[in-house]
């Protein structure tokens, strides 16, 4: 995502009622913050937040947390969110590397990764959100039967993930190289990047994974 400095972005985020300023204080206590024990689902690298805002409006019985590390991007999400009444949606300005300090074991029910930055150079592989390093963080916070959902237009990152995810002990439940023309298209909620890329005719890849159980290590293609 191209970043242009927005003067005062840090201050506006620091004062925003939609951003949890000290998220580590809620580790193990997210149900208290939301005021209910509903499932907590997070999007890592939410960008401008379109996807989570649509999900939160459609599913008031589910809690959502949007994770974005860049203030300038998060500010755009905050501005959109200001016009919506969504008590089940909070934002965090943090690097996803720190998520295990913010959520306790099994505190998250589902993790969404949408159009994550591809980081094509080998020396940047650890920054990919489907790298072993990030998968280890997700493993710490995700419920035992929780799932990871990943969408991207980037075939190289997707092919990498089809190997990195099972190698880290996860089981790929489904995958497709063309989500919008697959049986999994029904109910799909589009992200900002997804709208842009699909308008350009680029196919969208998707996989869903959970933690491998010893007796179920194979994966089922579309
Ligand atoms: N998910 C949105 C969509 O599909 O429209 C935005 C996609 S954008 C390409 C990826 C976003 O992930 C960027 O806003 C970037 O700042 C964020 N991001 C990348 N690495 C991150 C990390 N380690 N922690 C939090 N956010 C991250």
Textual characterization of the structure:
It is a single chain. By secondary structure, the protein is α/β, with parallel strands linked by helices. It has 8 helices and 7 strands. Residues 217-222 have low confidence and may be disordered. Helix 6 (132-141) links the parallel strand 4 (108-114) and strand 5 (142-152). Strands 3-2-1-4-5-7-6 form a 7-stranded mixed beta sheet, with helices on both faces. Helix 1 packs across helix 4. It has helices at residues 9-15, 30-34, 50-58, 71-81, 99-102, 132-141, 155-167, 192-199; strands spanning 40-44, 63-67, 89-92, 108-114, 142-152, 170-176, 205-211.
Which consecutive residue ranges, at least 5 long each, have pLDDT under 50?
Answer: 217-222
**Distance between the ends:** 30 Å
Main structural class = alpha/beta
Rg is 17 Å
Principal-axis shape: globular
Strand order of the largest sheet: 3-2-1-4-5-7-6
Report the strand count: 7
Q: Write down the oligomeric state.
A: single chain
> What bound compounds does this protein have?
S-adenosylmethionine
Mean pLDDT: 94
**Sheet with most strands:** 7 strands, mixed
Strand content: 15-25%
Q: How much helix, percentage-wise, in residues?
A: 25-40%
H/E element order: HHEHEHEHEHEHEHE
By DSSP (H or I, 4+ residues per run), the number of helices equals 8
Name the descriptors.
single chain; 222 residues; alpha/beta; seven-stranded mixed sheet; 8 helices; 7 strands; 30% helix; disordered C terminus; binds S-adenosylmethionine
